[in-house]
Amino acid sequence: MCQNNIYSTLLELCNVPSVSPNVETENNVADLIYGKISSNDYFKKNPELIKLAAIDDDPNPRKLVFGVVKSDLQVEETIILTGHFDVVEPNGPIKELIFDPPSYTKEIANHPLDKDSLKDLNSGNWLFGRGVADMKSGVSVAMEYISNVANAEIKLNVNVAFLFVPDEENDSRGMLGAMTCLRRFEKELSLKFIGCVNTEPSIAPVEGGAPEPSIYLGSIGKINPFIYILGKRMHLGEYHKGVSASLIASYLNLNIEGNLSLADSSESMTYLPIGCHMIKNIEQKYGASIVDRMFILYGYLPVKKYPEQILKELVSTAERSMDRALRHVGEIQCRYLKNADDMVKYESKIMTYEELREMYYSKFGDQAEAKINEILASQDEAADMRSRALDIATEMVDSLGIDGPCIIIGFMFPCYPFIENRTDDPEDKYFKEIASEVVSFAEKKFNTKISVHEFFEGASDLSYCGLRGRGKEYLPYINNVPGWGKLYSWPLSDMEYFDFPVINIGPWGKDLHKYTERVNVEYAVSILPELLQLFIRRISDHYKK
Asked: How much of the chain exceeds pLDDT 90, in percent?
């Protein structure tokens, strides 16, 4: 593969500020990718094999790029190369240059850098800028590989498809929409997808240390539990006559955030504990009243636990937290209330969002759906989807007259199912065997050590490449999401339809999403292309007739 082509394509892609969600810029880079690939003679002769497709049900109408180079052997088996072309918003002291990597790399030397960033800069081997690592270098390598296959420089026993999507950095609507498209394309073009190769960059390992060249045999999950807290409203001057939602939230957060006993683990390691994305008052401006409603949004990275188990653990933790908060309230009453008859023993409630929803629909029957639709219609469609979902929960709480102290637990979106390399599946095992062969090849030819990890330890689009027979495990998630089917959903039948192994073989990058984001150029343009080529060649060998 041509190193100059990969590098120049990387710069072209980075020059487009495809910050998600931005319809215009994300579509601009989709157009750029489509234009470059479709100009190949192979696709000029076979225009039906490349598509610039609209994403179904995308509130921000964006496009993906799909295509396939078919083997001369007229086979159905098809390996997919995928990647996302959106990026996170720019940050840092010279963000006006961040989409021009050469200029940015030159100028960043004049600004404060940590020790590792400065070392990489001075080496001359690293390129800085937004998207250079996450993940336009991987997309550039995949595009060059596709070009080589299309030009018949590489002959294979399988077809090679490519799928480039927007919105991975936001709600992953690109890959979610792609699943429906893939099922349609598979039928239209007589394909059978046998695996997916992503080209996300290496990331800092959970166990600590700097990122290193890595291969990932699966992708960690990401789920966002929420907790809606109702206290008992009181004036600051009568603090002993109510229950502060903030007090309950404090005990909850102490028991949940960073709690290692709630962290998920596999055979080899314990992954990171729950972290808090957001904690805020609900519908309350500053005043003399103590906050009586709060909302907490958490993030969690499971590798084995399904939503039902996560929900049960959070309910149990909520019960303990509420009990401790009410004991605290009792201690305050004992200190300030002189008359024992004035003491209040509060009856608390812990429920799931699914239970709240069932109560709401039971009370309002056919009107329930209309009331929710009315709420959604009155909202600003440009508002954050999670805030709109929170409005649905508040409507239910208010209409049902739910009284505090109360804790309601559910899930927000997005959710990324974990996807693992299955030890009992022959195809998964074969992917793992080839990964080991790639590692040996890299060490022998390039004197480069590559680590193999069980999971890509950040959320990735690989999560949506098939539920692998586990759809029922996610029903507790679906049933506990406010606005499911209206604000957010999965193409469940399509996700359940696909069942193939995945792997991530990408560039060596560092500091993703930071102003010091950078990629090792030599690895990206010289080493990675050969690793990718070897992996797909070995997949091809597996399907030799």
From this structure: 83
pLDDT (tens digit per residue) in 113-141: 999 999 999 999 999 999 999 999 999 99
- Residue 469: predicted pLDDT: 87
Say if residue 135 is preceded by a cis peptide, omega within 30 of 0: yes
Give the integer Cα–Cα distance in Å for 77 and 88. 35
Phi, psi of 52, deg, nearest 5: -105, 95
Share of the chain above pLDDT 70, in %: 97
Does residue 307 have a cis bond before it (omega within 30 degrees)? Answer: no
B/e letters for 155-185, b = 16+ CB within 10 Å, e = fewer, are ebbbbbbbbbbbbbbbbbbbbbbbbbbbbeb
Q: What is the pLDDT of residue 141?
A: 98
Mean pLDDT of 2-12: 94
Report CA 342 to chain centroid distance, whole Å.
51
What is the value of pTM for the model shown? 0.92
- Burial string for 38-53 (b: 16+ CB within 10 Å, else e) reads bebebbeeeeebbbbb
Distance (Å, rounded) from C-alpha 329 to C-alpha 343? 10
Query: How far is it, in rounded angstroms, from Cα 246 to Cα 524?
Result: 49
Query: Checking DSSP bridges between strand 451-453 and strand 214-216, what pairing results, if any?
Result: parallel
Three-state secondary structure along 347-404? CCEEEEHHHHHHHHHHHHCHHHHHHHHHHHHHCCCCCCHHHHHHHHHHHHHHHHCCCC
In terms of DSSP bridges, do strands 349-352 and 406-416 run parallel, antiparallel, or are they unpaired? parallel
* Element holding 196 (H helix, E strand): strand 192-198
The type of residue at 197 is V
